């Protein structure tokens, strides 16, 4: 656009120098007409003009921009791998967190089982202690009964000895009482009838 304005000014100046003073009105009209025609440029032509005629400063700026873009791309490019690695690491961290939660849950279950086992073990120990006490009690009762049996057997033994002595004395007494007594005499000492005490004692001893 600055190039077009400069061209317009030079065109007006050259036209005014070649004309006479009497022709000022016509020159001014021609100059105005030329200026307007010069300013009316189609957008396509102006775009073509801009793309074909590029100042050195603009080329330099464009080159610098391209260099900057390349530099930025070179800086950003390695970070793409870093971001991908970070994404993978985050996924791994998430998997580890889930695994940690699962392990904590299993640990809680194992601890609950261990507490249950300890409770059952304590209960079994208490039951064993109760059974031991009952066993000791039964053993004491057995010992007491055995001692009682021994005492009873000893008493029976003594009673039997006394009875044998009594039976022996009774026989001796019967022999003494029956001496020199007739069998038909059923009165007095030495009589051993069916209903007599002597016969009953003799039958009991047998």
Structural key phrases:
single chain; about 210 residues; mainly alpha; 5 helices; about 85% helix
Mean pLDDT: 69
| Terminal Cα span | 164 Å
Global outline? rod-shaped
Order of helices and strands: HHHHH
Structural class: mainly alpha
Number of strands: 0
What does this molecule look like?
The longest helix has 123 residues, at 56-178. 0% of the residues are buried. Helix 1 (2-18) runs antiparallel to helix 2 and helix 4 (56-178) packs across helix 5 (197-205). Helices cover 85% and strands 0% of the residues. Residues 1-23, 25-53 and 194-198 have low confidence and may be disordered. The chain has 5 helices and no strands. The chain has 206 residues and is mainly alpha-helical. The chain is rod-shaped and about 180 Å long. It has helices at residues 2-18, 24-39, 43-52, 56-178, 197-205. Residues 86-162 form a coiled coil.
Describe what is shown at a glance.
85% of the residues lie in helices and 0% in strands.
List the helices and strands and how they pair.
Blueprint: H1 2-18, H2 24-39, H3 43-52, H4 56-178, H5 197-205
């Amino acid at each position: 656009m600055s190039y077009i304005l400069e061209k317009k000014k030079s065109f007006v100046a050259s036209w005014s120098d070649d004309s006479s003073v009497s022709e000022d009105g016509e020159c001014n009209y021609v100059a105005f007409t030329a200026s307007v025609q010069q300013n009316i440029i189609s957008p396509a032509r102006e775009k073509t003009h801009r793309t074909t005629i590029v100042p050195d400063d603009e080329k330099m700026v464009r080159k610098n921009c391209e260099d900057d873009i390349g530099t930025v791309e070179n800086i950003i490019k390695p970070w793409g791998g870093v971001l991908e690695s970070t994404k993978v690491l985050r996924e791994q961290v998430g998997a580890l967190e889930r695994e940690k939660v699962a392990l904590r849950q299993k640990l809680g279950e194992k601890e609950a089982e261990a507490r249950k086992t300890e409770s059952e073990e304590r209960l079994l120990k208490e039951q064993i202690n109760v059974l031991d006490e009952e066993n000791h009690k039964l053993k004491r009762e057995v010992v007491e009964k055995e001692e009682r049996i021994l005492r009873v057997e000893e008493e029976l033994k003594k009673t039997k000895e006394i009875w044998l002595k009594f039976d022996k004395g009774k026989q001796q007494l019967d022999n003494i009482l029956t001496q020199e007594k007739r069998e038909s005499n059923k009165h007095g000492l030495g009589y051993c009838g069916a209903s007599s005490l002597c016969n009953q004692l003799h039958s009991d001893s047998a």
